UniProtKB/TrEMBL annotation:
Translocase as UniProt keyword: no
Protein name according to UniProt: Membrane protein
Keywords: Membrane, Transmembrane, Transmembrane helix
TM regions (residue ranges): 7-24, 36-56, 85-109, 115-132, 144-162, 182-201, 213-232, 263-286, 298-315, 321-339
Species for this entry: Paenibacillus marchantiophytorum
The keyword Membrane belongs to this UniProt entry's keyword annotation: yes
């Protein structure tokens, strides 16, 4: 039973780390999959296989290396010198995403709960410090609560869409996009998300004693991500092409279901923001511990405080530059992960 519980916790942490606010809004699924029509089912299947395969491999490599942070893994993949530069760049992007997630938490409080933006920031920071100061075990526990809500919510969406007259759109809709663009989308999506997820997957892989727990946890987690991708694609396809005009396409679907689903959706959005926020902040703190002599709690407080300051001015311009570049580096990272056969998968 203890092994089974660990497998579920690893799987839920994997899902919670990958699935962020962009996923919950539906915008990521729309841009990478649904807009490409019926072929999206195939590309989601490709992504799911990659999430299972590379997720397992990533955690097992971390387990064998006893990696302290993703920096140790990058040195193996890229070599010591280039690995250091990749890790520094990853740290910068992680901080950018951390700041955006914190700002997202403030926005949820302001727009949905009608409280002040600053209240949302401070509540998120206090909750994050409480969790992060307790280490990877606390992060896994938070995901064990948040991810089941996500899964149940996805089931509700699928059932609602099932009764829609356009429920078979996911098989019928077409796209004018080139096959090259459609075929590249799942690799770019998976590469970027896995490269960011290493902030938590690496220390988690190193901390779990049994390889079998990591294997089955990675298998279950990758499959769960694929299931969430397909359920969102299924729901969005039924509303195409009109749904593409909305900034939060899933929100448009939820608004038709009544107040209870709307509240559940609010919890899902905030939960996904929070799990991504703590995952990235934790990865940053581990890497900085390797580079400085500061105490972990001092580092953690500094990261959260700096995130709070930057969230006041926004980070959109910098991210618009970093995201495409990091997307390119992430694809190289994915290729190297696939190429590395030294570490067995079982």
């Amino acid at each position: 039973m203890r092994t089974g519980s660990q497998i579920v916790r690893v799987a839920f942490t994997y899902i919670g780390t990958v699935v962020g606010a962009g996923f919950a809004s539906g915008q990521e699924i729309l841009q990478f999959f649904t807009q490409y029509g019926g072929l999206a089912t195939l590309t989601i299947a490709i992504s799911t296989v990659l999430f299972i395969w590379i997720g397992i491999k990533l955690m097992l490599m971390a387990h064998e290396l006893k990696a302290t942070s993703y920096e140790d893994l990058n040195r193996v993949l890229f070599g010591h010198k280039i690995g250091n530069w990749i890790s520094l760049f990853t740290m910068l992007v992680l901080f950018g995403i951390t700041t955006v997630m914190l700002a997202g938490g403030g926005t949820v409080f302001e727009e949905q709960l009608h409280l002040s933006y600053q209240t949302g920031l401070l509540v998120t920071l206090v909750l994050a410090y409480f969790v992060l100061s307790r280490g990877i075990g606390a992060i896994m526990t938070v995901n064990s609560f948040v991810v089941p809500i996500m899964l149940m919510f996805s089931l509700v969406i699928v059932i609602y869409t099932w009764h829609s007259p356009s429920s078979d759109n996911w098989l019928r809709i077409t796209s004018d996009a080139s096959l090259v663009k459609i075929g590249f989308a799942p690799f770019l999506y998976t590469a970027f998300n896995l490269a960011m997820a290493q902030a938590v997957l690496v220390p988690m892989g190193a901390s779990i004693e049994k390889r079998s727990v990591l294997y089955w946890g990675g298998l279950l987690g990758g499959a769960g991500i694929g299931l969430l991708l397909w359920s969102a694609h299924y729901a969005l396809s039924a509303q195409m092409p009109g749904i593409a005009q909305y900034e939060i396409p899933m929100g448009n679907i939820i608004n038709r279901l009544g107040s209870a689903p709307q509240f559940a959706y609010l919890l899902v959005i905030y939960g996904e923001i929070f799990t991504t926020f703590i995952a990235d902040a934790y990865g940053l703190s581990l890497q900085l511990q390797q580079r400085t002599k500061l105490k972990p709690k001092v580092l953690l407080f500094s990261i959260l405080a700096l995130s709070y300051l930057v969230s006041q001015i926004g980070f959109k311009t910098l991210l618009s530059i970093l995201y495409p570049v990091f997307g390119f580096i992430s694809v190289i990272w994915l290729v190297l992960m696939i190429w590395r056969n030294r570490y067995r998968a079982m």
